[in-house]
Specification:
It is built from seven helices and eight strands; from the N terminus they run ααββββββββααααα. It is globular. Helices cover 38% and strands 23% of the residues. Strands 1, 2, 3, 4, 5, 6, 7 and 8 form an eight-stranded antiparallel sheet that branches. The mean pLDDT is 93. The protein starts with a helix and ends with a helix. The protein has helices spanning 5-21, 27-42, 162-173, 175-181, 185-210, 217-221, 223-226, and strands at residues 48-53, 59-60, 64-65, 71-84, 93-104, 109-117, 132-136, 154-156.
Length: 230
C-alpha cells in the first residue's frame, strides 16, 4: 500500500495538533511540524518526497522531569529523510538520518540516539551492521568532548520518520499524556499512516525470516544481505 505526500501531510498535521493539545511539543516545535506537514500536502499525489529538519530549527518539546527528577529537554532533528515508494524489497527510504538529543536544564548534552541507513563506501559496499539501525551517540554539536567513544552496537530496528519518533518521545517522557493520546482514534489513524509507510517492508522481511531455519533474522537484515540487488 502506498501513501501519497498529501496523505502523509494530513497525518503529520494531525500529529502536530494532538501533541500541542497534550502540551508535549513546544509551540516552536509545533510550527516546525506544521511546516513539514504543509510541504508534504503541497506535493499532493507524489509518492516520493524529502524532509529535512535543520539543527537551527529543530522540533523541540516541553521541558519535563525524567524519572530521576532531573529536568530534560528532548529535541528531534532530521539531517535528511527521502521517501521513494518504488518497486523494491527494502523499506521505502533512499535517505534516513534522524536524531534525538536530550539536554539538561542548563542545555548541556546528556544523550543522543540516531536512526539511519547503513552507509556505502566509494566501492558501493555497505558498512557493517543492519541495513536500518539505531545507534547511541554520534556527534554532539558544539561539544565534541561529549561524543560517545563507541560506534557499536548498531541495533537492528524498523525505520521511523518524524511522527513515529514523536510518539516514542511522548511515550517515554510524557507517559500520562500519551496514555490519553493512544486511546484517541484521530491519533491512532495518523500514526497508523506512518506505521504502514515505515513498517510494512520490515515486518514482511521479519516474517519471512522466521520461516527459514537456515539463517537468522539479523543475518537477513544485515546491510550486505538485505541491501544487495535482487
Amino acid at each position: 500500500m502506498t501513501i501519497t505526500a498529501a496523505e502523509a501531510g494530513s497525518a503529520m498535521s494531525a500529529v502536530a495538533n494532538k501533541l500541542l493539545e497534550a502540551q508535549i511539543v513546544s509551540p516552536e516545535g509545533f510550527n516546525v511540524l506544521l511546516r513539514v506537514a504543509g510541504d508534504l500536502t503541497r506535493r499532493k499525489t507524489d509518492l516520493t518526497w524529502s524532509i529535512e529538519v535543520d539543527r537551527g530549527q529543530p522540533i523541540t518539546f516541553q521541558k519535563v522531569r525524567d524519572r530521576s527528577g532531573a529536568i530534560v529537554s528532548p529535541v528531534l532533528m532530521a539531517k535528511g529523510i527521502t521517501i521513494a515508494q518504488d518497486e523494491r524489497h527494502t523499506p521505502p527510504f533512499d535517505q534516513l538520518d534522524i536524531a534525538l538529543e536530550i539536554s539538561d536544564e542548563q542545555n548541556r548534552p546528556m544523550a543522543r540516539w540516531h536512526l539511519d541507513l547503513a552507509n556505502k563506501d566509494r566501492d558501493e559496499a555497505f558498512q557493517s551492521g543492519p541495513l536500518v539501525h539505531l545507534q547511541y551517540g554520534g556527534h554532539q554539536h558544539g561539544d565534541r568532548d561529549a561524543d560517545a567513544p563507541l560506534k557499536a552496537p548498531r541495533w537492528c530496528h524498523p525505520p521511523m520518520e518524524l511522527a513515529l519518533f514523536c510518539e516514542i518521545i511522548a511515550a517515554n517522557f510524557y507517559e500520562d499524556a500519551w496514555a490519553e493520546l493512544r486511546e484517541d482514534p484521530g491519533w491512532c489513524r495518523a500514526i497508523g499512516t506512518f506505521q504502514r509507510l515505515c513498517y510494512s517492508a520490515y515486518v514482511e522481511k521479519l516474517r519471512n525470516a522466521l520461516s527459514v531455519s537456515s539463517s537468522t533474522a539479523l543475518n537477513v537484515m544485515w546491510a550486505s544481505a538485505w541491501g544487495a540487488p535482487v
